[in-house]
């Protein structure tokens, strides 16, 4: 049985073959993520193949995203990836059972001659991920929805600062409300509003840890059944991955279609690393 599984994985990996990526140097402000910026027109596009994640349960029932269009630029200090993929609907999560469209880029977290295992690294062989969600971007642009926004016909009668009677809310503070939000009270980084991108360090399945205080960012635009997303990051990140001009590294990708019930391990991804080189000069 194990040999059959390994053979199946090798076959699917061949389908999602690696691609060579080259980051072109541009004179632009890459702190402003713009999927429609003029400089993208002169950058070569690489088609990267994805498949439904085949290794860990729960797995997706099919490959919803089979192709990812990738362009890469840098300005000597920062690198930006533009990712484009087909998605028939814009999904930003919200109510229970609703999930967000998302995408992630993964890098080796340590400089080495060979990359770690592409499936989230391994013990002592960490990977560094940049995970964008449409949900985070919605929260940044228009604010995080309240329970009342999501369930307008619901009635709240126990949460501080949300009592129907205004007099009962007098003197209450955000700290009082946190008593009913354990994740916020304990400082769980997933409990706060996001800037668009999570930075994550992992050393294998189920080991993801969100890093705080990062300077990566992401902005996506959905139009006519497709996402166009830019994720940017500094070349060197302390405690994470480092990319060097003229040097070689690797990158891997994943996409989630929230409208198709994809979340967590239910995703489409590359089963092999793509080589990444940063071209010097204009």
Report on this structure.
- By secondary structure, the chain is of the alpha+beta class.
- It folds into two domains: 2-142 and 199-277, Immunoglobulin-like (Sandwich), CATH 2.60.40; 145-192, no CATH class.
- 13% of the residues lie in helices and 29% in strands.
- The chain is built from five helices and 14 strands.
- The chain has helices at residues 2-15, 134-142, 147-150, 174-178, 182-185, and strands spanning 21-25, 46-49, 51-52, 67-74, 78-86, 102-108, 127-133, 197-202, 209-211, 217-223, 226-234, 248-256, 268-269, 274-278.
- Strands 1, 2, 3, 4, 5, 6, 7, 8, 9, 10, 11, 12, 13 and 14 form a 14-stranded mixed beta sheet that branches.
- A hairpin with a 6-residue loop joins strand 8 and strand 9 (209-211).
- The longest helix is centred in the first third of the chain and has 14 residues, at 2-15.
- The protein is globular, with a radius of gyration of 20 Å.
- The relative contact order is 0.24.
- The model is unreliable at 1-15 (pLDDT under 50).
- Count of helices? 5
C-alpha-based Rg, rounded: 20 Å
Question: What is the average of the pLDDT values?
Answer: 88
Oligomer: single chain
Biggest sheet, in brief? 14 strands, mixed
N-to-C SSE string, H for helix and E for strand: HEEEEEEEHHHHEEEEEEE
CATH topology of the largest domain: Immunoglobulin-like
> Helix amount, in percent?
10-25%
Going by CATH, the architecture of the largest domain would be Sandwich
**Structural class given helices, strands, pairing?**
alpha+beta
Instruction: Compute the number of structural domains.
Output: 2
Number of strand segments? 14
Distance between the termini: 53 Å
**Overall 3D shape:** globular
By CATH reckoning, the class of the largest domain would read: Mainly Beta
Ranges where pLDDT stays below 50 over 5 or more residues in a row are 1-15
Strand content: 25-35%
